[in-house]
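In this section we walk through a basic example: taking a raw amino acid sequence and producing a predicted 3D structure, encoded as discrete structure tokens. The instruction is simple. Fold the sequence below.
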Amino acid sequence: MRRIFGSVRSRATLGATLVVAVALVAAGAAVLLSLRSNLMEQAGNEAQRTAQNVVAQIAAGKTYDQLDLDDESPVQVVDANGTLVAASDELERISGTATDAVKPQPAATGTSGVDDDDDADDSARDEAGEIGEGTEFSDGSATIDGESADYRFAAVPVEAGERGKLTVYAGGSLDAEQSAVNTALTVMLIGFPLLLAVVAGVTWLVTGRALRPVEGIRGEMAAITASEDLARRVPVPDTHDEVARLALTTNETLAALQTSVERQRRFVADASHELRSPIASLRTQLEVGVAHPELLDLDGAVVDTVRLQGLAADLLLLARLDAGERPGDARFDLGALAREQAEGRADVTVEARSAQVAGSRGQVGRVLTNLLDNARRHAHSAVTVTVRADGEWVVVAVADDGDGVAEADRERIFERFVRLDEARSRDDGGAGLGLAIARDVAVRHGGTLTVGRAPAGGALFELRLPQAQ
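The resulting token sequence is shown next.
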């Protein structure tokens, strides 16, 4: 059960069905209430017309036994004391009016003194009063000629002269209202479930079709996970919607992951290769020293150890950079740091102005050290370092008078473990990590590191970092 209702398709279908069900129930209730209200109003109007007809007869001066009462509808005439003075002939039972009596009281069936001549008629009309105002309605039931039904009663008052105030009760049948409401309710009870079934089925089909590409993406991702083949890509549907954009983003993520994994594999392979040489050399010297102490080359062992230590430090720094280590926001003088890094180096000239930058002083110092080591290694006789402000930037330029860097190789040299002169001795060159570390540090400080041609013909490295605000 949890698996069924745990899918997006099931939840969407259930949600749509519930929303439609609530809307249908609300609409059905409103329709039934409106229908019942209209039919009740019609029954009340019918009852009021019947009552007003009787009231008109009373106002015309007719006696109670002369009243023309509707035999198909319940009619009562009640005096001010609540005594029934006239009623429909076939009325057998009534409720919902002022009295449940169905037979007029004998004392109330007398005449009002009307004669056959015109003067008597005029006198009777004069004695009769006018139709009163303020019709009231009530609900009840009645039995007429053996048939019982519910009615809407209208109570219309009338001033009847010497007879006092009378109230005429007349009923309008509610059979049509009950029949219509029951029919509508039956239609709703049958139609609503069918409509909900249609809504659920359509929603299930539509969501299934919409989510089919998602299932394809999920299946392909599962296959990629099982095979560990990051070169594979998920299918991109032609719908140009959110699912298509999800597929494109997934493929971009896979491409970035593939690049990162391949980079890490190359990094591990190159690091293992670079570590093998100094470790092997150091082991050889130690083994010779154990067998022949007089042949132990302590200076060479120290050099290999220092080289191994530097390579381990470079690898550790790269690992920290790859892990996203933040450079910090400490302020320091980049000009003073450049003079400090150049101090004690032969043939290095420094022209540095004070300029404040923010970040890791140790990492930026490592960049300057790597740039100076690289420049000194390739320079013929001189290295020049300048520090200047350039708008919102602080620029450190390290130039040498060596052979320079070919334009085709100016980006390649910033890759890890890349050394342009593969033939040169490893003892003279580094492991190919210095410039890669320098650019990574520059980028993480919000700056750039580029290489061009120096005025003296050698390489010109420019480090740009934002000035501290």
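Looking at the output, two observations stand out. Residues 242-310 form a domain with the Helix Hairpins fold (CATH 1.10.287). The longest helix spans residues 175-227. In the next section we compare this with other chains.
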